[in-house]
Design a protein that fits this description.
heterodimer; A: 532 residues; alpha+beta; Rhopdopsin 7-helix transmembrane proteins; four-stranded antiparallel sheet; B: 380 residues; three-stranded mixed sheet; three-stranded antiparallel sheet; 17% strand; globular; Wntless (chain A)
Chain lengths: 532, 380
């Protein structure tokens, strides 16, 4: 029995039509995100209100009743930080917002009499409270505690100077780096309240300058985009799942044993299905804390499998290598790749894991945490860099290999020539599409970044396309189309040519050729030429 | 000078000359937000804020909660104006007759341009900030109880556009008086179409009429320049929040500058302000110097020269007599420049001052008192 791959069975015309359809679907994906009308994520900026702290009250809040006596900070009031509370009450949140990432930006004024040290550490005590809609309407209900923590952050500020004045020594003020603040991985409740108090006892929070207030920047996914995203996932999932099942059925029907590449294609399809499975809907009904971790792990898993697949694909196409290709012949590359993924996984678990217990925690805020996470990231960065080099080397080797054979092709026997040409065709096809995908990703990424940063002054004519949304849905669509195409094009088909021995014997030098499982392609070509 | 006890006014941001007791209850300190807007907006807008023009009163009725913020913004503008001009001939001095700046606002010189820009910027800035603090009902970030009929999902959308909101509100509110047609002016064209005999009188009327039209145009331009200054200096800051902090997801937000920066920026614009003339053919104000195109929307424009050396009530100049100057400086605060060549008196006196202070933030200060001999130079 001889196996063919759909890619080779397709005539040029059929292939072209198939690709054009995929391209149209891809464009639809881009347009869906781009014409959705809203940005995928939204930052809302609020300013903390400064209130008097009251010993008899656990929470200071604005509404429903006025409980906050607004204050302002001045000298000569003989007060300490203990007398003040910074309060922020978030506008109503729905579960469609998915997660809340937030930062705070300290506002520090310049005052020659107050020292701002370059490595000032701000320590604050912060509490997060919640209310449900029902509690919110009931004026007697008290806020319930979600989390409480004492956090330290280092303040980094740059002085800002006038436009061309003589007083170069006196800055107008400072611009400060934002501080990591609160990460809510699930939005269980609609109303949140934050009470923040600066702690200055025992020599904490010294030399923090004339700190006046904080700005709170909360980042959420927009409701409209979440709806689009869920719908997209729900629609993509069955299609990719169907193609995976089809792939398995083809394997079964062709009674082909799984080679390495087949296994990886199957794994790729499986990880894409896991990625697509719209479990998100569940979070609307019953939000659970670990969802964000799960969601990020499946993304990481998918990407790792995809990278492994490329490695294998290139490796299997080194035409003349004599080594037998067991799973472990790529050992060092695979180990490197999975090592990098594991490192990132550990980092992820540390970062998000702590936040499950304390949403105010930031791994970057302590020196140890900072060093450890930097080490993790550098390790992951180094191994992915090595991976890229390895992959490039491998690809170049395949190319070189085929190139060198190309000059001999004319002198080869017909069958062998066809084998080389078949391998070359598959490889080129794959390489070309992969590179195309990579280019599309990079270009759309930069477009979206550029668009975000660029200040659009002309408010009368708002742009119709949201590039950042288009980027997210477009890339998501592209990865799925890629996986779908691989599952379809590389699934085996039974061929009518079944004399394998004849072919292997016809080699010039008598060596048995290893052309991956995709040897089949050559047979197909042979059969074609034979028929014509 | 000194702490501006703001009686918010000045015809051009909506308060008319006839009122002397405008907002007398609204003297306030800067960061105190404890305004008590009366429950009944109509009486509040019409009696407490009499000096608003008709258009502004309508805005006030719709957004009564904005008014304290607007006043705060205007006073912030004045404060910053005084800070920027403390060592100039014109020191942004305010008057207590209800018009804040006195006759300066009825002219069309650089100072008028700067004041308009500053007030407009102040209002835009304050409204944006109040929006961010959730003080305004109509701003989407409001922390006030949501109206029952509001769609449920309209909780956060658009909340990042505080500065847009401030810009739009500032434009509507501050520019309104310039666009409203004064009833006195409506009357006059009718009168001179009907009667041919009073030609001389018409000529006399037409000239100030055109002048006031040009001035309106100039004020609108300078107001816009002030608001644009807020926009220009607003920073766009981005935050990456993808998987493991990667930049696959990034969200940007706007950060308001310090108001001091806006003041410094507008002062630069004051120094490079463009003298304009009215081009009847285009109906536009063009740069007087034909070599330059423009003015652009960011430039301040004026068409009258000004001199603030001598006391002149008509143009609102207090003169520099009695101002302090710096004997050693060669800049605008130096005695030569400040006193316009009239010379100065030097006074030496012993004052009691706080010294050796220990400032603790937040918020206490411990000082000693000591005596010190100071030398003051005052212009003749």
């Amino acid at each position: 029995m001889v196996y063919l791959v759909v890619l080779e069975k397709f005539s040029r015309r059929k292939l072209l039509i198939f690709l054009i359809i995929l391209l149209i679907i891809q464009i639809i994906y881009f347009l869906l995100g781009g014409l959705n009308g809203t940005k995928p994520t939204y930052a809302t900026v609020h300013e903390f209100t400064l209130c008097q702290s009251k010993a008899d009250r656990q929470w200071i809040y604005h509404s429903p009743e006025k409980n906050c006596n607004e204050e302002h900070l001045e000298f000569e009031r003989e007060k300490t930080w203990k007398d003040f509370v910074y309060v922020i009450q978030l506008p109503r949140i729905t579960r469609w917002f998915q997660t809340l990432t937030s930062i705070i930006v300290p506002h520090i004024e310049y005052d020659s009499r107050v020292n701002l040290s370059a490595n000032a550490i701000l320590t604050y005590n912060v509490r997060l409270g919640y209310k449900t809609d029902k509690m919110f309407e009931d004026l007697n209900s008290e806020w319930q505690l979600v989390a409480e923590s004492q956090e330290s952050r280092s303040i980094q500020c740059r002085p800002i100077f006038h436009y061309g004045t003589k007083n170069k020594d006196i800055p107008d003020g400072y611009t400060c780096e934002p501080l990591a603040f609160l990460e809510l991985s699930t939005l269980k409740y609609p109303h949140y309240l934050i009470n923040l108090q600066i702690v200055d006892k025992n020599g904490l929070s010294q030399d923090i300058g004339k700190l006046k207030s904080f700005e709170f920047v909360g980042i959420c996914q927009t409701e409209k985009f979440t709806k689009l995203w869920y719908t997209l996932k729900t629609m993509t999932f069955p299609i990719v799942l169907a193609s995976l099942i089809w792939f398995c059925r083809q394997m079964k029907r062709a009674q082909k044993t799984y080679t390495n590449l087949d296994k990886l294609i199957f794994l790729l399809g499986l990880s894409a299905c896991i990625l697509n499975a719209p479990i998100e809907w569940l979070t609307l009904v019953m939000p659970f804390n670990g969802f964000q971790i799960y969601s990020e792990i499946r993304q990481g898993f998918f990407l790792t499998v995809l990278l492994t697949f490329w490695l294998f694909f290139a490796g299997e196409h080194v035409v003349d290598k004599s080594a037998n290709h067991g799973l472990f012949s790529y050992g060092k590359y695979i180990v490197l790749l999975w090592f990098a993924s594991c490192v990132l996984l550990i980092f992820e678990l540390c970062e998000r894991g702590f936040q499950l217990r304390n949403p105010f925690h930031s791994i970057w805020s302590t020196r140890v945490g900072r060093n450890v996470s930097l080490t993790f990231l550098i390790l992951a960065g180094l191994s992915s860099f090595t991976y890229i080099i390895c992959l490039t080397v491998l690809v170049v080797r395949v190319f070189w290999n085929i190139r060198s054979k190309q000059s001999e092709i004319a002198a080869m026997r017909r069958i062998r020539r066809l084998i080389y040409q078949g391998a070359f065709y598959r490889f080129q096809f794959m390489l070309l599409t992969t590179i195309l995908c990579a280019i599309i990703t990079i270009v759309s990424y930069y477009l979206s970044q550029l668009y975000e940063t660029y200040w659009v002054w002309d408010k009368e004519k708002p742009t119709k396309i949201q590039y950042s949304g288009a980027f997210i849905t477009g890339v998501y669509g592209m990865l799925n189309i890629y996986v779908f195409a691989i599952l379809v094009l590389f699934s085996p088909v039974i061929s009518n040519v079944d004399d394998m021995d004849e072919l292997t014997l016809t080699n010039d030098d008598g060596n048995v050729m290893h052309l991956t499982h995709n040897q089949t392609s050559a047979y197909q070509m042979i059969s074609k030429t034979a028929i014509t | 000078m000194g702490q501006p006890k703001v009686i918010f006014g000045g015809k051009n941001i909506g308060l008319e000359r006839r009122n002397d007791n405008i907002l007398s209850s609204y003297s306030f300190t800067n960061s105190d937000h404890q305004y008590a807007v009366e429950d009944d907006p109509s009486s509040y807008c019409q009696s407490s804020l009499k000096s608003l023009t008709i258009g502004q009163q309508q805005i006030c009725l719709l957004h009564a909660d904005h008014m304290p913020v607007v006043i705060q913004g205007a006073s912030k503008g004045i404060e910053e104006c005084q800070n920027q001009f403390q060592d100039r001939h014109w020191n942004c001095s305010t008057v207590r007759d209800g018009t804040v700046f006195g006759p300066v606002l009825y002219h069309a010189n650089r100072e008028t341009a700067f004041t308009h820009a500053m007030l407009s910027a102040g209002v835009t800035y304050a409204v944006s900030r109040a929006c961010k603090q959730g003080l305004l009902k109509s701003c989407t970030c409001s922390r006030a109880a949501r109206p029952k009929n509001l769609p449920r999902d309209w909780a956060w959308g658009g909340c990042g556009d505080n500065i847009d909101y401030g810009y739009r509100f500032g434009r509507d509110f501050v520019d309104t008086p310039e666009k409203e047609v004064n009833p006195n002016i409506i009357d006059s064209p009718v009168s001179f179409i009907n009667t041919n005999q009073t030609n001389v009188e018409n000529e006399m009327k037409r000239k100030p009429l055109r002048r006031s039209r040009i001035r309106r145009q100039m004020n609108i331009h300078n107001n816009e320049a002030g608001r644009r200054a807020v926009y220009r200096l607003t920073r766009v800051v981005c935050k990456c929040h993808g998987v493991s902090g990667s930049c696959s997801l990034r969200t940007c937000y706007q950060q308001l500058p310090a108001f001091r920066e806006i003041g410094a920026f507008l002062k630069e614009k004051y120094d490079s302000a463009i003298e304009v003339r009215y081009q009847r053919r285009l109906g536009q104000l063009r740069s007087r110097d034909r070599r330059f195109a423009g003015p652009t929307k960011d430039d301040l424009i004026y068409f009258e020269d000004s001199n603030f050396c001598e006391y002149n009530r008509r143009i609102g100049s207090f003169g520099t007599k009695g101002r302090q100057c710096n004997r050693t400086s060669h800049g605008p605060d130096g005695c030569g420049t400040m006193c316009c060549g009239r010379g100065y008196n030097t006074i030496r006196k012993v004052v009691q001052e706080k010294c050796n202070c220990k400032f603790i933030w937040c918020c206490s200060v411990q000082c000693q008192t000591c005596q010190k001999l100071v030398e003051i130079n005052i212009c003749k």
